[in-house]
Amino acid sequence: MAIFTDDGGLTRRGFLQGAGAGALGLMAAGCRPAAARQGGIVSSPAPRPPNIVFILADDLGYGDLGCYGQARIKTPHLDRLAAEGTRFTQAYAGSTVCAPSRCALMLGQHTGHCRVRGNARVPLRPEDVTVAEVLKSAGYATGIVGKWGLGEPDTSGVPTRQGFDYWFGYLNQHHAHNYWPTYLWRNEERVALKNVVPNEDAQGGGVASERIEYSPDLFQKEALEFIRRHKDRPFFLYYATTIPHANNEAGKQGMEIPSDAPYSGEDWPPQEKNFAAMVTRLDRDVGELMALLKDLGLDGDTLVLFSSDNGPHREGGHDPTFFASSGAVRGIKRDLYDGGIRVPMIARRPGHVPAGAVSDHVWAFWDLLPTAAELAGVACPDGLDGRSVVPALLGRPQPAAEFLYWEFHERVFTQAVRMGQWKAVRKGLARKLELYDLRRDLREERDVSADEPAIVQRIEAYLKTARTDSADFPIRPPPKA
Fold first, then answer.
1. Are both 289 and 414 inside the same structural domain?
2. 447-469, pLDDT tens digit by residue?
3. Contact predicate 28/8, CB 8 Å
4. Residue whose C-alpha is closest to residue 305's, from 289, 281, 329
5. How many domains does the chain have?
6. Are residues 143 and 69 in the same domain?
7. Do 278 and 134 share a domain, yes or no?
8. Nearest Cα to 134, choosing from 385, 301, 370?
9. In this structure, are 381 and 282 located in the same domain?
10. What is the CATH number of the domain that holds 63?
11. Residue 111 and residue 469 in contact, taking contact as beta carbons nearer than 8 Å
12. For residues 31 and 74, which has the higher predicted lDDT (pLDDT)?
């Protein structure tokens, strides 16, 4: 039997023990039931749950897609995805850098509670419950292709030990810098590639001298094949591409791509041609995936979500201001202003998600797990910070969570809170809280903390309970001046 808390929620360990022994169909606090329950008995059988495809770009900015205002980079397939679905304008990543953002996505917890709170190579634990484990308990086939970042080889954090039936890609984020690596991982086996990297380091990073097998092309092939293999049963595909991240080891030539087409003739710096070509290549791949779903008759049975792990980067020679990659918001990767954490979020499922809609519902990566659980009709573990956003996906009114929380452990310890129209940022525990009214100041340029003492007091009170300490990511004192 599963182990339940006093409020009916499953403990995280109890979920793992009980998912296959009666936990299905019971929803923990914060997860909306998929079918009405009468006297502890499900009143009607749930229909077959939808397939779920979550496509995650890497360092793609809020303003890098045409449907979010981009004027120069061509993204016709993603623009069509938005036209056929709902475009969310106030969706947030789990963090402002890679690994903690992906941890929040997988575990349903914000960075004040989740296991991985920075880019240090800390693995998920056996007792952590991922969205893949939740969906696997509902009979889903679960697969991940691309970049993981939550566990090294032979640790408890590798995807196949965290609920994924199938895995292909990079285990750690440093290896993922190199677009022409000498190897990738399939399940728990190292797969040799034909590329040559003469300066390869211990983690697989470096710059290739012979470029034969481009990893995003391999990911696309694997993603399409996963869908084909599992077309006859519900599946969850987490497609975590590395585009348009830079290869930091390649310096100003870090925007690695086989060709800068269709931008070869533009009068732009070569790094910007390459960056734009990467985004358009990703757009092409999304279009190919959507065409496959339609060809297989899965179009109406599949919820497709598209987003990015954090804001745009200033790496590999790319200047995020060249294409106005942050859009109308301020900041980039490694900032907790909205430019570092507000991301594109497109949802599409014909007949369910409204087409051509734009939603200002405020939600974040940690809402994926309870949302997926509701769609699958299964239990959530307890201890989640997220809650289901199924009503918002269906175009129905839904109150936003009272608070969203982030913390960032690089440089000085920084915290951010979203509370309704208000956004607070604090750079260091001893520093005062900055406060911005996003309705009037989307770029977070005018600190109104002195004018709104009651709002500051309310957020300060929340911050006292928002997080738990982490031995792996302790709060470091600010550097001495």
1. no
2. 999 999 999 999 999 999 999 99
3. yes
4. 289
5. 2
6. yes
7. yes
8. 370
9. yes
10. 3.40.720.10
11. no
12. 74
Of the residues 341, 361, 393, the one at which a domain ends: 393
Q: What percent of the chain has pLDDT over 70?
A: 90
Average pLDDT over residues 38-65: 79
Q: Would the pLDDT of 289 be above 80?
A: yes
User: Does residue 198 have a cis bond before it (omega within 30 degrees)?
Assistant: no
Distance from C-alpha of 367 to C-alpha of 210, rounded to nearest angstrom = 42
* 228 lies in the same domain as 329: yes
State the CATH number of the domain containing residue 414.
3.30.1120.10
Give the range of the structural domain holding residue 427, as residue numbers without chain letter: 404-463
Helix axis angle for 270-295 and 76-83, nearest 10°, is 50
Contact 191, 183 (CB under 8 A): yes
Reduce the DSSP state of residue 32 to 3 states and report it: coil
Query: Helices (DSSP H) in 21-140: which residue ranges?
Result: 76-83, 98-107, 131-136
Residue 3 inside a domain? The answer is no
List Cβ neighbours of 36 (8 Å cut-off, separation of 6 or more): 42, 43, 44
Where is 289: in which H helix or E strand?
helix 270-295
Residue 11 included in any domain: no
Euclidean distance between CA atoms 180 and 258, whole angstroms: 10
Confidence of residue 18 (pLDDT cuts 50, 70, 90): low
Distance, CA of 253 to CA of 101 (rounded, Å): 26
pTM tops 0.90, yes or no? yes
**Side chain identity, residue 333:** K
Instruction: Give the residue among 343, 356, 377 at the shortest CA–CA distance from 96.
Output: 343
- Find which of 46-60, 152-166, 464-478 is predicted with most confidence, using mean pLDDT: 152-166
Query: What residue type is 15 in one-letter code?
Result: F
Residue 30 lies in a domain: no
**Structure tokens that stand for 403 in this block:** 């608070």
**Residue 320 · residue 326 · CB < 8 Å:** yes
CA angle 282-283-285, nearest 5°? 65
Residue 259 belongs to a domain: yes
Q: Is the pLDDT of residue 26 over 50?
A: no
Phi, psi of 425 (to 5 degrees): -135, 135
Q: Which of 46-60, 83-97, 183-197, 332-346 has the lowest mean pLDDT?
A: 46-60
Task: Looking at the structure, tell me whether residues 152 and 253 fall in a common domain.
Answer: yes
Domain boundary among 368, 393, 418: 393
Average pLDDT over residues 113-136: 97
- Contact criterion met (CB below 8 Å) for 442 and 378: no
